[in-house]
Amino acid sequence: MKTGICPKCREVKELTTHHLFPRRFYGTKQNKKVLLICRSCHNKLETFIPQKEKMPDRFYTSIVELFLAVKPEPKFW
Ligand SMILES: [Zn+2]
Ligand SMILES: [Zn+2]
Fold first, then answer.
1. How many domains does one find in the chain?
2. What is the pLDDT of residues 25-70, one digit of tens each?
3. Which of 3, 20, 29, 34 is the most buried (most CB within 10 A)?
4. How many angstroms separate the alpha carbon of residue 9 from the centre of ligand 1?
């Protein structure tokens, strides 16, 4: 485990490794593309990724771009 700033919530947390291209579909070949992200943001990100269906390559990179582009929810109003 590595501690750092999560690119999504911008908080200092323990970071987990998200493989942009799921290993269950791509094997290990393209799996150099990873994103370090905290556990709770990682869980949210995973909910946007279809688990059973293989999507086009671009889907996996753009889902991460879109996910990170969304501003973190404000904690106080
Ligand atoms: Zn986070
Ligand atoms: Zn992941």
1. 1
2. 988 776 789 999 999 999 999 999 998 999 999 999 999 999 999 7
3. 20
4. 4
